[in-house]
Amino acid sequence: MSPVIEIKKDQNGKEMVVITFEDGKEIITNITPAGDLKLMAFNTAFELKHSGTESILIKLK
Question: What ranges do the domains of the chain cover?
Answer without folding.
Answer: 4-48
